[in-house]
Task: structure prediction
Amino acid sequence: MNKTRILIAKKTLKLLEKNSWEKISIDKILGKENKIKFNSKKELLSNINRYIDYQLKKNLSSMEVSSPKDMVFEVIMARFDILNSHRDSIKNLMNFFTSNPQEFIKSLPSFVESIILSASLANIKVNGIKGAANIKILFLIYLITIYTWRMDESSALEKTMTNLDKYLIQIEKITPIFK
Result:
């Protein structure tokens, strides 16, 4: 991810701290002298997502290999740690998506890319029929857990970790995702 895109993602997240997504405009973020052309706010959302993915890869560059379940746990919690550093911004986006689910659906491809990255970082198969099933399962786990994260005000995200672990244990019992 280049420096300009990183700066745009940071600026977008900064504006989202105090503003709803509806009140933010491309011009407000990019100004008149933008070097990179963004044609829609959906592209700005994708840029935020790529920035979070970039941070995730950077943070997990030296992750130790362990059991697939433990690695999924580590990757998802690392993502939540990144989201937590932009908590108000992400919660504002979630509020927007909750009241505009069609906008979330339009943004799904970007979120699915992030799930594929997360699965890959955790050494979970992402190709073929088994890979497609794994991606769907991880996406569901992530969606369920993000709502726990949204309400989890603790600095160490204890409730989020507990629920994520519980979901992963339940999934492990009914599907071979971790095998």
